[in-house]
Amino acid sequence: MAKAIALVSAVCILALASVAQSHPSNGFNVSGKVYCDPCRVQFEHQFSYHLPGATVRISCFNNLTETITYTAEGVTDKTGYYDLRVKGDHHNDLCEVRATKSPKPECSVKMFHAERHYFKQSADNLVQDLKPLGFMTKGVLPGCSIVEKMG
Ligand SMILES: *[C@@H]1O[C@H](CO)[C@@H](O)[C@H](O)[C@H]1NC(C)=O
Ligand SMILES: *[C@@H]1O[C@H](CO)[C@@H](O)[C@H](O)[C@H]1NC(C)=O
After folding, report:
1. Ligand 2 atom, smallest distance to 125 CA
2. pLDDT tens for residues 78-106?
3. Burial of 123 from C-beta contacts in 10 A (0-12 / 13-18 / 19+)
4. What ranges do the domains of the chain cover?
5. Which CATH code for domain 2-146?
6. How many Cα atoms occupy the beta-carbon half-sphere of 108 within 13 Å?
7. pLDDT tens by residue, 21-45
8. Which of 10, 58, 78, 126 has the most CB within a 10 Å radius?
9. Minimum CA distance residue for ligand 1 atom 10
């Protein structure tokens, strides 16, 4: 029963999304998590952990006018997730979210693969889930030779 309701609401959301796309957007949200990788492999594994209090920055860029059309900054909550509003209409823009500051000095090395992700506008008032962002440590834990990819 719960599954049926979830399916019905998913269908409704998709229907709303396609309606919303024909009008200029009022904005949408992007969310995701920030993690620490103490093995420097740049993916999530059994030794990685979420980072509450990490700073993430959103910016949208219009490549025709070559201007930055939106910026916002936020911090991950106590579970390591952020949820940020991208206000206005950005259908002509390419946006990015970037992990700019780690709350932990011992895990603050920038990643090549998960320092930033690019995204395009999603339908009005929906939350777009983005791939995880992360920081890594300077050294690696002794157990890191047996990392197993998660998530
Ligand atoms: C601008 O972005 C659009 C859509 O992503 C792309 O098709 C176009 O080639 C880009 N133009 C330039 C000058 O980079
Ligand atoms: C969108 O982001 C704003 C600002 O972070 C937040 O207040 C709001 O609750 C978010 N909305 C949704 C639907 O997650």
Report:
1. 13
2. 999 999 999 999 999 999 999 999 999 99
3. middle
4. 2-146
5. 2.60.40.10
6. 10
7. 556 788 999 999 999 999 999 999 9
8. 58
9. 63
